[in-house]
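Dear colleague,

Thank you for sharing your sequence with our group. We've completed the structure prediction you requested, and as agreed, I am returning the results in plain text so they can be pasted directly into your records. Please verify that the sequence below matches your submission; if there's any discrepancy, let me know and we will rerun it promptly.
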Amino acid sequence: MVVQQHGSTSGPRVRAAVVSVAVATVVTGVGGCGGGAAGGERNGDPTQSVRGAAERLVREGSSRARTSMEMASGGTRVTIHGDGGYDYREGVGELRVRLPQDAAGDEEHRPITELLAPGALYMKNRGAGVPADKWVRVDVTALTDGNLVTGGATDPLAAAELLRGAREVTERPETEVAGVPTRHFEGVVDLAAAAKAASPEQKGALAAAAKGFRKRQVPFDVYLDEAGLIRKVVHRFSFANGERKKDVAVTSTTLYRAFGKPVEVRLPAKRDIFAGKVAETRP
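Please find the predicted structure tokens below.
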């Protein structure tokens, strides 16, 4: 059951605070299916196979997802992990995102619960002045990266939708992902093309990303099983760090498994949305 909610907390103060969860860790904080031959249509066009992966995922309905986001700047690497489930037909998911030790201070940090919905990101256990029983809501279309990086985990549906803008696709030797035979493809995503071809639910966020990233070409690797389902996708983002005038490299990896199993996501009611000021977390 999905409970829709229409309350909102947005604006520069929220965006700055959200970015501090993931990006500022580096920027300011440091000095299912399976078996058989893989790949769907064996003689199919690799580019079309990759571009159709998002639609194939939606047809499957749901899955579990595991995310990893590694940020590197100035020779230092920080990795943020997430795990949860996604209902691709409804366009909603839930992830529990774990910050690395000392990412935002010396104390221990509870996992952040993130609810993903069309155009919105909800976070609980955000800290920094937010009551424990309240959620922070962010309009992802107002984020310069469309929440591809900001929340510390790329939305699993957005990660697939990006592939609609695949270019220069090359097929590599087959390999296994978690014991499942897969076809391995690599290429680059054109962010503007991905935004143009995206589903209505993802179009706003990807359009924001197409405008916000300095480099509009995003290298990727994707692994498709025999049914054409994504088992793993890796995107390599890069954006400018205005404070140190160096690029921050972000490698986002999403693993998909347990396809078709029911996923229930309950979005918070308006009364549960924090309406106050969100303090920015500094290391």
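Summary note from our side: Residues 12-259 form a domain with the outer membrane lipoprotein receptor (LolB), chain A fold (CATH 2.50.20.20).

Kind regards,
the structure core
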